C-alpha cells in the first residue's frame, strides 16, 4: 500500500514539461506571467498617481504594493532569467495592443459610471480610480484564465495540480482595491466587470506572441 502511494505521489509530482506539449505548457505557465507584467505596471501607476495627488491615507498601501512586488520578483527569480523576463515584458505589449478595443470600451464605461456616481469628483481623482479598476480587471482576467488552464491541464494529466500563480499575485488585487476608499463603482457596473474579465481571459487563450520572444521552456 505504501509503495502504491509513493508511486502515485511520484506520478503527481512529475514535471508538467514531461507530459505537456510545448504549446500547452506555454499557454499554462508562460502566458499568465506575460499579462501579470501588465498588472504590475498598472499597480506602479496607481502608486505613482497616489503619491502625486498626495493621498496620505494611501502611504501604507503604496509601501505594501512595493514590498509585494519585491516578494513577487524574488519568487519569479527562482524560475526565470533576464531573457525570460524580457520576453514577458515584450509580449506584455503584444497583449495590451491585442485587447486595446476591450480596454477602451471598459474604461469609457467605467468613467461614465464614476461620473454618474460622483459628479463632483475632479478629473485627477477620477483618472486615479480608472487606473485602479484597470489593474483590477487585468488581475481578475488572469485569475479566470489560470483557472481555465488548470481545469484543462488536470484533464490531460488525470490528477489535480497546484496553483500556477504565486500567492503574491493573488494578494495584489486585495491591495489594489483598498486604494478605492469611499469611492466604489456602482453595484450594477461591478456585476458587469465579470463579463469584461471573462472576455479578457478568452483573449488570453488566443494571444499570439512574438516568436522571437517565446522562451524555449516555461517550467513552473
Question: In brief, what are we looking at here?
Answer:
This protein has helices at about 1-10, 20-30, 30-50, 60-75, 80-100, 100-115, 125-155, 165-180, 185-205.
Q: Calculate the mean pLDDT score and round it.
A: 87
**Which percent range describes the beta-strand content?**
under 5%
Radius of gyration from the CA trace? 19 Å
Assembly category: single chain
Q: Please mark out the parts with pLDDT under 50 across 5 or more consecutive residues, or reply none.
A: 1-13
Structural class: mainly alpha
Q: What portion of residues is helical?
A: over 70%
Number of helices: 9
Order of helices and strands: HHHHHHHHH
The counted number of beta strands is 0
Which outline best applies? globular
Q: How far is the first residue's CA from the last residue's CA? A: 30 Å
Q: Largest sheet at a glance?
A: none
Description:
With 220 residues, this protein is mainly α. Helices cover 74% and strands 0% of the residues. It contains 9 helices and no strands. The protein has helices at 2-12, 22-29, 31-52, 59-77, 82-98, 100-117, 123-157, 167-178, 187-206. The longest helix has 35 residues, at 123-157. The protein is globular, with a radius of gyration of 19 Å.
Write the layout of secondary structure elements.
Blueprint: H1 2-12, H2 22-29, H3 31-52, H4 59-77, H5 82-98, H6 100-117, H7 123-157, H8 167-178, H9 187-206
